[in-house]
Amino acid sequence: MEPMDYIQSAQGARSRARDLGIVIGGFATGPLDAITDVPGVRVGHATVRRHPDVHSGVTAVVPDVVGPHAPLPAGMFTGNGYGKLIGVTQLTELGTLETPVLLTSTLSAFRVADALVGWMLEQPGCGKVQSLNPVVGECNDGFLSDIRARPVHEVHVRAALDGASGGPVAEGCVGAGTGTGALGFKAGIGTASRTPDLGGRRYTVGVLVQANFGGTLRVLGRSVTPQSLGLAADPAPVGEAGSCMIVVATDAPLDARQLTRVARRAVFALARTGAAYSHGSGDYAIAFGTRPQTGAPLEDAELGPLFEAVLDAVEEAVLNSLLAATTTTGFGGRTLPALSADRLLEVLSGPATPLVPDGEGPAR
């Protein structure tokens, strides 16, 4: 078994969207502008790097109280189903989540699911469990990482789960986002939160994305490419290397049907960022509530602000995933450039210019 290079679970040093004055939507954020603003939600990462060929890892979104005897209401939505989302059929059939949600690399997803089952069986109250539905999502990091090496092992899964914490969430090239790229740039993990008022009460909704999808980045209505920023970039990954996993958590009292509606909006939000939803992209969202469904859920007519808040939070989380990432050269010498904050601000402050199609000159 290969050793893990490091585990990172604290916020990195690069700017986030709001640090640059890029504000999406009118809802207030939580204190950290992260999925961990939702009470009872923790995040852990295990990053696996062996230069030059391995850039991978695993990310765990861990509700404080979840298990086969304490399932949480949940829903999911598939934007494009080219993916290996483990545990999806039982989640959609029963509308409940029994385990933390883990994200990783495509060919490591099955090993991660097995390790998650082993970890869960050791948790309090699981001593007699004979059936368990692990939920594991994935993105293909094979453009920058030797995906066939399947470098993520049980030790990494347990490190992410046991190290999960509240507080700031590391973004960019960490955990399941270590080898991913989106919209022509190096991307990775991103997060954001909002606090909408629903039915006269304020609730929190937080999102975390593992961004790895194709298209042309749009920021505040401007198209942005590596070429428009003067950055050198290798040809974009093929469509089959795409995907985006989105995890949504909320403390609002919603049932599984309503959480499925929330998950649907999370996938819709990718269009705001410029997502192409290509043939080979696996675009999924899982939404869960942090409280077991014991009372009546909110009325559907009250959910409008929550839907809008999710759209805003996912858009910002994707942008945070790009801004936090660093230029990475990996497997086969291929490189994905980081989104330069300084150059992005120059583009946003300058006059709008049309995006020139490939083969007709430099993009602007």
In terms of quaternary structure, what is this? single chain
Shape: globular
Question: How far apart are the termini?
Answer: 47 Å
Helix percentage range: 10-25%
Secondary-structure-derived class: alpha+beta
Number of helices: 7
Query: Low-confidence runs (pLDDT<50, min 5 residues)?
Result: 6-11, 358-364
Instruction: Give the spatial strand order of the biggest sheet.
Output: 4-3-16-15-12-9
Order of helices and strands: EEEHEEHEHEEEEEEEEEHHEHEEH
Care to describe what's here?
There is one protein chain. The N and C termini lie far apart (47 Å). It is globular, with a radius of gyration of 19 Å. It is built from 7 helices and 18 strands. The strands form 6 sheets. The chain has a 6-stranded mixed sheet with strand order 4-3-16-15-12-9. Helices cover 21% and strands 24% of the residues. A hairpin with a 5-residue loop joins β17 (328-329) and β18 (335-336). It has 364 residues and is of the alpha+beta class.
